[in-house]
Design a protein that fits this description.
It is a single chain. Helices cover 41% and strands 19% of the residues. It is built from 14 helices and 14 strands. The strands form two sheets. An eight-stranded mixed beta sheet has the order 3-4-2-1-5-6-7-8, with helices on both faces. α11 links the parallel β13 (298-302) and β14 (316-318). α1 (17-30) packs across α14 (356-370) and α10 (287-294) crosses α13. The termini are close together. 48% of the residues are buried.
């Protein structure tokens, strides 16, 4: 098959959806398919390059940061990518357009369907579904509701990585053609540290937004003198407030900012930390949880969205936004080395259910049934 992947974010730029689109594209190429990607350019990244058999085209766009993209910056991707995607479609004769996000990428995908007759599959990632974000895009979704519904109807299939996101989408558009396919993980890329390498470190990693709930973990530990450290990987508009909240904490809290996944500091923090906390208030199918599980961390997460679908019985879940419950779970786990070891082993076993080759195969079966 010839596959055109569209995403305004693509590594090294972007959040959780960026590595998802990269890994799927790489798997499709490894299985013998032709894969092109049209994404936005940032700083000095090359206009065109080949990554593991995938040809990546980066088009002009307005973007100030690698980790965070504002609405007008997303819109600039459509303007910059439209011409390139159309020309490629006319000359390469793709069998399928695989777009990530209903908005902002869906309009470009549906334009190609109308002009070139190429079927469209859109993978939803959460923020593109109304009601998913408690702190962003509410006004945008209200204004764009007619366009959003039109895009949902025009897509040949919408893939939801979690059942919770599928139900939210169907709530707004009951006749949408959906399919649930989870995100994946390459367990080998997150080698678990040996027991002796583990340090008394609690790790958090994500874009720093209010809905990620990192403020709840800071509140849970700041008045307790733990002989553990809290390490936070990530950047975003909520960072300054989190750093202000963390000042004077009796438990040390270290902010590392945005780190590339290939950065040795990123790798060491995942390998050496013993506990991973992800207290989000709204999630789709968070890849970062799979990464933490593959690295053998004992996981505490919330019951929001797809988080319970990711961890299953291999992690501890607490009510989203409940600081008291989070504090109790953290203190209990820090004081129980056997429990941490048990959860670590269970997490490593569970990630085998979400390997990228298996996930990619399910996508290809869907593509072939449509194309």
């Amino acid at each position: 098959m010839k596959i055109l992947t569209l995403n305004y974010e693509f590594p090294p730029v972007g959040g959780g959806a960026a590595p998802v689109s990269l890994q799927l594209a790489k798997q499709f190429a490894a299985m013998g398919h032709t894969v092109d990607v049209v994404t936005m350019r940032w700083q000095n990244l090359p206009h065109q390059e080949t990554i593991d058999g995938v040809t990546v085209y980066r088009t002009p766009a307005l973007r100030k940061r690698p980790d965070f993209c504002r609405t007008h910056e997303m819109a600039s991707y459509l303007l910059g990518a439209a011409g390139k995607a159309y020309r490629l479609s006319r000359t390469h004769h793709y069998d399928i357009v695989h777009a990530h996000f209903i908005i902002p990428t869906g309009p470009l995908a549906c334009m190609l369907k109308s002009l070139c007759g190429i079927p469209v599959v859109i993978t939803c990632h959460g923020s593109d579904v109304p009601g998913y974000n408690p702190d962003r895009f509410k006004r945008g979704h209200r204004l764009l509701r007619p366009i959003w519904r039109s895009l949902v109807h025009r897509a040949d299939r919408l893939v939801c990585p979690s059942y919770s996101l599928e139900q939210l989408l169907l709530k707004h558009c009951p006749d949408a053609r959906t399919r649930v396919i989870p995100n994946g993980i390459d367990p080998a890329s997150f080698v678990s540290g040996q027991e002796g390498e583990k340090k008394k470190q609690i790790l958090l990693c994500s874009r720093l937004l209010p809905r990620k709930g990192f403020q709840h973990l800071i509140e849970a530990v700041r008045d307790t003198s733990l002989d553990w450290q809290v390490h936070i990987i990530g950047d975003g508009p909520y960072r300054q407030e989190l750093e202000t909240q963390a000042k004077g904490s009796k438990t040390p809290i270290v902010f590392h900012g945005w780190l590339d996944r290939q950065d040795p500091r990123f790798i060491d923090l995942f390998r050496q930390s013993a506990v991973f906390v992800f207290p989000s208030e709204a999630e789709n199918f968070p890849t970062v949880l799979l990464e933490a599980m593959a690295a053998g961390l004992a996981v505490i997460t919330s019951d929001a969205g797809g988080c319970p679908e990711v961890v299953g019985e291999a992690g501890i879940t607490v009510p989203a936004g409940n600081v008291a419950a989070l504090r109790s779970a953290v203190l209990s786990l820090l004081g129980d080395a056997n429990k941490r070891k048990t959860l670590s082993a269970a997490a490593i076993r569970r990630v085998d259910e979400f390997t990228w080759p298996g996930v990619a195969k399910r996508y290809l079966e869907l593509f072939e049934s449509i194309a």
